[in-house]
Amino acid sequence: MQADVLTPEIAFAQTGLSLPPAPQPLGVYKPYLIDGKYLYVSGHGPVRDDKSLIIGRIGADMDMEAGKLAARQVGLTILSTIKTHLGSLDRVKRVIKVLGMVNCVPEFERHPYIINGCSELFADVWGTDNGIGVRSAVGMGSLPDNIPVEVEALFELAD
């Protein structure tokens, strides 16, 4: 059975991955906002199951593979926010847009590879048709708390 015909909840369960606790805002912003049929998710970092953050700069403190895993952890953190606040991943119909920001040394050029860690997770959950949206992957000179990756996303809600 293809992931495209599974519900997002079942598809996620089949990954064998766990969701970390949904983070609480540490600044003046909302972690998510629903506008009509769209769910906007604020920038998230890589929260572990014990609520700690993955820390480090790609190309200095960690390599590309560790960065890609950190991006997957950001995706899991976003899924946790969705499930915590909306009750189920099934409430989301599809991924519209992902903006991935990579904390890296100036010479680093593989930003899309890093953000694939998050994008591949979303494709596993919502299938290739609904789980892959438009995307930007950019390098940053720094990110909050020296996290390696931050991702914000826009989703379409299910009817």
Task: Please tell me about this protein's structure.
- This protein has 159 residues and is α+β, with helices and mostly antiparallel strands.
- It is 33% helix and 25% strand.
- The chain contains three helices and five strands.
- A five-stranded mixed beta sheet has the order 1-2-5-3-4, covered by helices on one side.
- Strand 1 and strand 2 form a beta hairpin.
- Helix 1 packs across helix 3 and helix 2 packs parallel to helix 3.
- The longest helix has 23 residues.
The overall pLDDT, averaged over residues, is: 96
Distance between the termini: 24 Å
Strand content: 15-25%
Q: Structural class of the secondary elements?
A: alpha+beta
Rg for CA atoms: 15 Å
Helix % is 25-40%
Number of separate strands = 5
Low-confidence stretches: none
Shape type: globular
Sketch the topology as an H/E string, one letter per element.
HEEHEHEE
Quick overview:
By secondary structure, the chain is α+β, with helices and mostly antiparallel strands. The chain has helices spanning 8-15, 64-86, 111-131, and strands spanning 32-35, 38-44, 92-103, 134-140, 149-157.
Topology:
Elements: H1 8-15, E1 32-35, E2 38-44, H2 64-86, E3 92-103, H3 111-131, E4 134-140, E5 149-157
Parallel strand pairs: 3-4
Antiparallel strand pairs: 1-2, 2-5, 3-5
Helix pairs in contact: 1-3, 2-3
